[in-house]
């Protein structure tokens, strides 16, 4: 990640980017899946999972985290508590007769764990997808380890990380689409944020992530909800140590780590996205005490899924 400094971002007069959350209500559904996107990401990165679970009879909610879709000068001043409030409000809207599962990507995984700690009676299971407690992946530059020096100085308000390849994506076709937008994007360019997320990552948000992690660490030992961690063994942003740390520190009796071997960080959109959905479905079904049903196996079923993705315009991004 390259670092860029800007002391005054342009104040855009245009409306926020259209980046609404998604809601899929299945008829006669007895279970709901709440999907949480990552920091500077979009609900679009969870769209494949949403379609998968909806077609299997789940109702699905994909909220937009607070201030995501806004110009960068607004997003950079957001607090982690606002992100958490976004998902908490969504959870509280789900009918109490529903079996609720929560899954989050990257920072979204941490928000999912916080929900499980606060609402143990409502949440039946959590899936942490590429959880981010430590940025220790193979593509993290050495300069990242100097960030603590910026946390306590005004530098944090004017420093931005520019996203660089592979953008958490191993699939070359998908990565190429992201690159077309990111390579020439300026700090105030939000033209395709709804599809691909923000090309720049404000250091102020890394400060907020650090505070969120600190808060979660204090509560992790109180989490007893079944927890599943799914992570790529080649994760370019966060190593498997992140999943192992959660596994070792939550008090859940039912917990597991699932490793994917042909993906990078954004496993919800990468080469093994169908396998990720299958693993989640099996985990949820074990908790519910029902057969998985509708598992993706065989070339014919895989082709059907790909056709649905094309028709729905499921664009993959970081």
Describe the structure.
- By secondary structure, the protein is α/β, with parallel strands linked by helices.
- The protein has one domain: Alpha/Beta hydrolase fold, catalytic domain (Rossmann fold), CATH 3.40.50.1820.
- It has 11 helices and 10 strands.
- The chain has helices at about 45-55, 70-75, 80-95, 105-120, 150, 170-180, 195, 205-220, 240-250, 275-290, 300-310; strands at about 1-5, 20-25, 30-35, 60, 100-105, 125-130, 160, 200, 225-230, 255-260.
- A 7-stranded mixed beta sheet has the order 2-4-3-5-6-9-10, sandwiched between helices. A 3-stranded antiparallel beta sheet has the order 1-7-8.
- Helix 4 packs parallel to helix 8 (about 205-220).
- The longest helix is centred in the middle third of the chain and has 17 residues, at about 205-220.
- The chain is globular.
- The two termini are about 15 Å apart.
- Residues about 15-20 and about 310-318 have low confidence and may be disordered.
């Amino acid at each position: 990640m390259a670092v860029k400094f800007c002391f005054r971002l342009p104040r855009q007069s245009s409306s926020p980017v259209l980046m609404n959350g998604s809601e899929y209500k299945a008829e006669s559904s007895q279970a709901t899946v709440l999907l949480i996107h990552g920091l500077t990401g979009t609900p679009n990165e969870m769209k494949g999972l949403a379609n998968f679970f909806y077609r299997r009879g789940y109702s699905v909610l994909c909220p937009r985290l607070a201030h995501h879709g806004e110009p960068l000068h607004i997003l950079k001043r957001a607090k982690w508590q606002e992100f958490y409030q976004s998902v908490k409000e969504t959870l509280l809207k789900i009918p109490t007769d529903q079996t609720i599962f929560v899954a989050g990507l990257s920072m979204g995984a941490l928000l999912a764990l916080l929900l499980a700690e606060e609402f143990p009676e409502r949440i039946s299971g959590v899936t942490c997808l590429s959880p981010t407690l430590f940025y220790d992946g193979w593509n993290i530059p050495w300069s990242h380890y100097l960030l603590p020096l910026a946390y306590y100085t005004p530098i944090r308000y004017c420093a931005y990380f520019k996203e660089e390849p592979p953008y958490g994506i191993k699939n070359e076709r998908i990565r190429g689409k992201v690159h077309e937008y990111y390579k020439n994007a300026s700090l105030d360019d939000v033209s395709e944020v709804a599809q691909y997320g923000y090309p720049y990552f404000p250091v102020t948000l890394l400060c907020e992530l650090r505070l969120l992690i600190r808060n979660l660490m204090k509560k992790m030992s109180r989490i007893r909800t079944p927890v599943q961690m799914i992570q790529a063994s080649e994760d370019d942003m966060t190593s498997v140590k992140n999943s192992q740390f959660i596994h070792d520190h939550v008090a859940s009796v039912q917990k597991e780590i699932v490793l994917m071997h042909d993906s990078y960080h954004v496993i919800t959109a990468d080469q093994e996205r169908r396998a990720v959905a299958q693993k989640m479905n099996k985990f949820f079904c074990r908790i519910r005490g029902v057969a998985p049903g509708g598992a993706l196996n065989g070339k014919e079923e895989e082709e059907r899924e790909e056709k649905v993705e094309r028709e729905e315009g499921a664009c993959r991004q970081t």
